[in-house]
Specification:
Blueprint lengths: L6 E2 L12 E3 L11 E3 L12 E7 L2 E5 L5 E4 L35 E6 L6 H12 L5 E7 L4 H8 L9 E5 L4 H7 L2 H14 L3 E5 L16 E7 L6 H4 L2 H5 L2 E5 L4 H4 L3 H11 L5 E3 L8 H16 L11
Parallel strand pairs: 7-10, 7-11, 8-9, 8-10, 11-12, 12-13
Antiparallel strand pairs: 1-9, 2-3, 4-5, 5-6
Amino acid sequence: SRAPPRTMGSDAPPPVPPAGHGHGHDAAASSDIGHGHSHANAVNATPLITPTGVSKDGVVYFTSPDGRTLHGHDGLKPHSHDPIPSPGRFGNRRGRIVDGRCYSERAFTIGIGGPVGTGKTALMLSLCKHLRDTHRVCAITNDIFTREDGEYLIKHNALDDADKIRAVETGGCPHAAIREDISCNLTEAESLTEKYAPDFILLESGGDNLAANFSRELADFIIYVIDVCGGDKIPRKGGPGVTQADLLVINKIELADAVGASLEVMARDATAQRDGGPFVMANVKKNEGVPEIAAHLLGAWRDATGGKRKIGKGDA
C-alpha cells in the first residue's frame, strides 16, 4: 500500500493510537484501508473520514464528517468532484470556528492558497521575515510529491530554527489535504504548537485551481493569492478562493504592463466579486504590500486570541 504523507522537520512519525483522525492512501479493496493520525493527547478525537468498505473498479469509497461520499483512486487521498453551484459570496462565507476552538492545542492557523506559480511561497518567506522578530511564527508547506517549498524556506532562513518549518508531501490533489482530509496538516500544526507554542502558524497549500479553498477546521484566516500573469480576467472568474477568502492578494503587479494586464480592471472586478471584501495589490518579491497583508492577519489573530502570547517550554 502507499505510504502516508511524509513531513520534513518532524522529530519522529506521529503515533497511531486507537482514536484520532483516520484517512486512507490506498486503492485496496478491503474495509480496513486507511490509517489514523493522532493529534497531541486527543485520544478521544472524532474521526474525520471513515472508509465505507465499498470498492469498485479500483475506487475506494469513504464517508466525510458531513455525510458526503468521498472516493480514493490511484493512491490519491479521499476527495470528491462534487459540482459547486456558485462561487459563494464574501458576506456569506463561513467564518473561523469559535466554539470549542483551543489555540493552546493548535495555534491560530493562517491558510495561504492559490493557483500554481502565483507567489505563495514567496509570500510565506516575506511574512516569516516580516513577523519573526515580533511574534512566534511556525510554517507548514504542502507539495504533492516533493518538499520543495519547505526546503526553499529553510534555504532562505525564513525562521530561526529549521524545525519550525514542516514540509508535507500530500500526494494527489492539493485541495484534499486542506479540505477533505486535513489530518496530515493538523498533525504538523499540533506538533508545532506543542513544541514551540507559536502565536500563529502559516500554512501554504499546494497550488490548485480557483475552486480550491481551506476547510475552516484547518484555517482560522484564509489568504488567497492570484497574480497578474494569469490575466486581468482572473478576479471576475470568481471561484471560492477569490470570493470567500478573508483576504485576496493580487501579486506580481510589477509585471502588469509586460503581460498586458490592467490593474484597474483587476481591482474593479475584485471589488465586485468580493462584495467590497479586502484585497491587497502586491509585489511580494520587493515586499510591496507585505506589511498590509501582515496587518490583516495580525488583526484577525488579535480578534481571535486577544493577542495573548502562550507560554512555551523554553520560557521561564
